Amino acid sequence: MTAAFFPANRPGRRLLLILALYLALAIPHSLIAPLTSGNDEWAHFLYARFIAEHGRLPINLAERQNRAEAGTKADDPPLYHLLVAAAAAGEPPARLLRPVDGDPQRQLADNQVVSYAFLVHTGYESWPFPGELWVWAMGRALSILFGAGLIVLTYLTGLTLFAKPNWALAAAGLLAFIPAFIFHTSVMTYDSLGALFTALFLLVAIQAIKQPDRWRWWPLLGLLAGLAVTTKYSSVLLPLEIVFVSGLAARRRTVLAGGGWFGWLAKRVGVAGLALLLATSWWFGFVIWHFNTIDTQGPVRGVLEPLLVRGGNDSTAISVTAFLLGEETVSVDLPAPARQRDYGYLAWQMVESFWSARIAERYLLSPWLAGLMLGAVLLSGLGLVRLWRGPRELSGLTRTWLALLLVHTLLIVPLILIRGFVSFDPLEAVQGRHILFPAASAIPLFLVWG
Fold first, then answer.
1. Looking at the 3D structure of the chain, how many domains does it have?
2. Helix (H) or strand (E) holding 228
3. 350 three-class SS
4. Domain housing 437
5. What is the pLDDT of residues 408-424, one digit of tens each?
């Protein structure tokens, strides 16, 4: 596997070429695209800037709910934002940006094309990125770096599954040149770091199934799941995938060596769960310590409410908490009634935003790119069905790998459905990147394999 990266090796050279082409597209885009172009980019910037300025996370509700300072992501897991603040530590984040903030003169001066422009764009948004602009530059640079890492992990996972370098290269190249992937990894977002951890999680899961008695894979699975959760809450279902992986590994071990499986499985799940708790304890401990409402709501609701509601910026989390614990326990205002849904429109938005990104309120190459890729997905799906239904004696681990890739890809779907039905604005949830990034290495492998 290591030899594949050696320059004298042909697949290694091709992988380097894919990475070079990806960087040749992502870096110029990150330099050209105005700040706030990315989804929630303004909020990510404010959160990282707050950490860079104060040397700490927000520690009370007043700081969390000050959207002009800490932003609307200030109650989200902070691992990405901590890394950005650390990378930007050499430059004091002096305030140079000019937020619109409802000022009609600034709105006129900026000639906003979209309602999320947020800023009057000035010459500070270019090299050498002085003051607080350096935080933004480091945020985008890290996103690109994590995107490159995702491409490499896709290649390594393909090699592990197929043992065919050309197939692995095809999967890596497919991911690298999805327009939505290039766009989102060249702006400031925690999606790329979360995807890096989940892609590494998938690679380790494959090794755990191949070598079920190697103890090292199980705490590593828990650690990676914990790192993903402390990057983005959408990874919160990864513990369920650990149980599924353990079941696949136990089944393979029983076939190879015989013997009981329940005790074996319980030990592996327990070790992975302990590593997961250790990896997430710093963040959840911080939240409970600073934001608990035990004095007013008791020990159970007082601990759960700040973990679920957080700072009150997620309408879905508030609605779900009110349903589970009662409206009287929620410490923030309840969201307005959900907007009317057009599910056909939402489904097509999911498809378009999976493959492309909005430019001036229109998806790139719409609707042709999304339609073409949807056809490719359907064709690949037919190939995978034929593969699954093939002779059992010829399949080997094929069904196991297909099942793992399928679960890994669809793990996020229940959360998207809940948000789609419950959230005030379903378009906040129905975005293709919410599937693309958690399954960034699995989806290209599926398509190439099919």
1. 2
2. helix 217-229
3. helix
4. 345-450
5. 999 998 888 877 777 76
